[in-house]
């Protein structure tokens, strides 16, 4: 039976005799430096940030200490998103297949400006560069509310310490409202991913 309310406690919660499940810092060293909404911390220093970057790995399964709805009483956890890291090759393929691709303006070899914008697959050449923001915006509008883009840790990104994620739900989403295995499999096939989605921690933690 699913709990009606999250099984979490905060520093201001009434005292309880129940055992409070705590994250194991040996397994999750990054947790020591999480910035909780209810804490006095507002940021991390560079050394602490590096610990989070280097030690956080996305979860295949959400541990009970980070699932607000699991039975053990626990500290209110940071937000995690279930999803797939953005793969721009898959994004491009999906956009072209579904007529949602936008491209940047460019100049040809003669210096003539070629206008970008929306293009169908048969119009695209090897020289056309995908407009990531416009294309992702179009795809996200099409896929809502099934998925949306979030920023998270544990996402490979050569441009920074975290990256974009196709998010299906969060750990704070009630279990009855989380996608079913069938819905996940359908989206996985639709978006072109081979692996199942994982749980990634929000960058706002």
Fold topology:
Blueprint: E1 8-9, E2 20-21, H1 46-55, E3 73-75, E4 80-85, H2 88-97, E5 102-103, E6 106-107, E7 113-114, E8 117-118, H3 132-143, E9 148-152, E10 163-170, H4 181-191, E11 198-201
Parallel strand pairs: 1-3, 2-3
Antiparallel strand pairs: 4-10, 4-11, 5-8, 6-7, 9-10
Helix pairs in contact: 2-3
Sheet with most strands: strand arrangement: 9-10-4-11
Helix content: 10-25%
For the record, the count of structural domains works out to 1
Total beta strands: 11
Q: Indicate the low-confidence ranges by residue numbers.
A: none
Indicate the radius of gyration in whole angstroms: 21 Å
Q: Structural class, from secondary structure content?
A: alpha+beta
> What is the H/E order?
EEHEEHEEEEHEEHE
> In DSSP terms, counting alpha (H) and pi (I) runs of 4 or more, how many helices?
4
Describe this protein's structure.
With 205 residues, the protein is α+β, with helices and mostly antiparallel strands. It has one domain. Helix content is 21%, strand content 19%. It contains 4 helices and 11 strands, in the order E-E-H-E-E-H-E-E-E-E-H-E-E-H-E. It has a 4-stranded antiparallel beta sheet with strand order 9-10-4-11. A 3-stranded parallel beta sheet has the order 1-3-2, with no helix packed on it. Strands 5-8 form a two-stranded antiparallel sheet. Helix 1 links the parallel strand 2 and strand 3. Helix 2 packs across helix 3. The longest helix has 12 residues. It is elongated and about 75 Å long. It starts with 7 loop residues before the first strand and ends with a strand.
């Amino acid at each position: 039976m699913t709990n009606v309310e999250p099984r979490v406690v905060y520093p201001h919660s009434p005292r309880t005799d129940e055992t409070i499940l705590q994250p194991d810092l040996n397994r999750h060293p990054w947790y020591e430096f999480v910035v909780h909404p209810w804490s006095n911390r507002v940021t991390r220093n560079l050394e602490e940030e590096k610990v989070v970057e280097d030690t956080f790995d996305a979860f295949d399964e959400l541990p009970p200490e980070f699932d607000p709805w699991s039975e053990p009483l626990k500290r209110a956890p940071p937000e995690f998103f279930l999803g797939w890291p953005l793969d721009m090759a898959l994004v491009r393929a999906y956009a072209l297949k579904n007529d949602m691709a936008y491209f940047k303006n460019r100049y040809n070899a003669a210096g003539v400006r070629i206008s970008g914008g929306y293009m169908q697959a048969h119009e695209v050449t090897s020289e056309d560069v995908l407009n990531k923001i416009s294309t992702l915006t179009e795809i996200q509008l099409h896929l809502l509310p099934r998925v949306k883009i979030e920023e998270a840790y544990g996402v490979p990104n050569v441009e920074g310490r975290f990256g974009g994620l196709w998010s299906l739900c969060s750990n704070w989403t009630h279990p009855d409202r989380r996608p079913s295995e069938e819905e996940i499999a359908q989206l996985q096939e639709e978006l072109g991913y081979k692996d199942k989605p994982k749980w990634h921690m929000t960058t706002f933690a």
